[in-house]
Amino acid sequence: MSAPVALLTALILLVGPLSPAAAQAPSRVRLTTPPGGSVQVHGEYPPVTSSCVDPYQPLLHARYRGTIEVARADDGSLRLVSELSFEDYVKGIAEVPRDWPMAALKAQVVAARTYALNRYNFAEPSGDWDLCATTECQVYVGMRVEAGPWGDRWVRAVEETAGEVLLYRGEPAITYYSSTSPGHTFDVEDVFGGEALPYLRGADEEDDGASPLSRWRVEVPFDDLARFLAADGRWSGARISEAAPADGGIRIAGPRGAVVVSKDDLRDALNNTASCLAPDRYPTTEPDGYRLPQTVPSIWYRARQEGSSLVLQGRGWGHGIGMVQWGAHGKAKRGLPYEDILAAYYGGLRPQPVDLPGRIRILVAEGLRRVTVAPSAEVGLDPPVGAAPPWVITGGRRLRVRHGRPPAPLLEATGFTAPPEAVAGAPLRARVELSDDARARLEYLRQGEPVATTPWTPLEDGPARIRLPVPALPPGDYEVRGVFDDGVDTVASDALPLAVVASVSPAPTPPPATEAAPAPPSREDDDSGAIGIGLAAAALLLGVLALLTLRRRKGLHRA
Question: What distances in angstroms separate CA 316 from CA 187, 203, 297, one per listed residue?
Answer without folding.
Answer: 16, 15, 7
